[in-house]
Amino acid sequence: MNTFPSAYPGESCLLQVYNGGLEDSEFELVSSSTIALNGTQVVAPNEFNQQVSYIEKPVTLTAANELAVEVRGKPGGGIVVQIACERDVTAPTIESTLSPLPNGAGWHQQDVTVSFICDDAESGVASCPAPVLVASEGAGQVVTGEASDHFGNTASTSVTINLDKTIPQINATQLPVKNLFGWNNGDVTVAFSCSDALSGIVQCPADLLVSSEGTAQTVNGTVVDVAGNSASVTHTLNIDKTVPLITSTLSIPADLNGWHGSDVTVSFVCSDALSGIASCTSPQLVSNEGASQLISGSVEDKSGNSAHVDVTINLDKFAPPSAPHKRHYPTAMVGITAM
Questions:
Q1: Whether this model's pTM surpasses 0.85
Q2: Is the pLDDT of residue 117 over 60?
Q3: Which CATH architecture has domain 93-163?
Q4: 245-315: which CATH architecture?
């Protein structure tokens, strides 16, 4: 009676019986033998005689095994009994696949499903990992899967996931800044600033110079992060570089000599074709007499451009007095004296 353990309960093996031993004339041939494994007869007496040199029987092992052998024959006869198991000592194979695939920089911008493909050419696959969904953002996330075959051989594989689902940030500013009316009167540089907290920025738009006049001009900028997420910004600006127009009018015209004989009101007319008028000088009353009185008017548009005009007023409100009457005096006086 022999006992032996098995590390693989349920393992299918072959019970091999060699009559006379493994080598020629090692023993005398026996005429009969009974072999039982774990209380179950495997080889019956009538299956064995001196003409039978080899018997092979399939058997199944348990964790603890008991082999019982009974031999009949001439003295010196013997047999060799062995149990041969074709065990799988090769690990299975396992591969991972990603859906969707990462971009060229190794990043994803949406949830990733990691699936596993397992194979074993000998005993077959006993377990293969289920797909894993990666939905959390982060860099260097490691997903590991392990496969096993029916003999307990294992293999594993790991894949690293970089996931960034958040769009980057982009802002636009201008120099010089717009005035209180939202206008500029010169060239404007629009600058972009970009940031991304996870995968990083591929490229931020370069500064853009705007020199053309116009209202509600738009400048667009787009930023892309390493994962492929993008964001855009639109900046609106107004540029007016042309000075406004201003003209003057008088309430009464001057005479042919350029003089006024009564109070004069100087009015101003202002216009601007683009940004519009921010201020224009109010009418000015000239009531003081004097020559070459300078009256100035100015205009400023909403972008800060300005212009002015000067008017000269000569005012004399009092007429000159009439010529005095001439007096006639005698050229000689004659006096008479009484005697």
A1: no
A2: yes
A3: Sandwich (2.60)
A4: Sandwich (2.60)
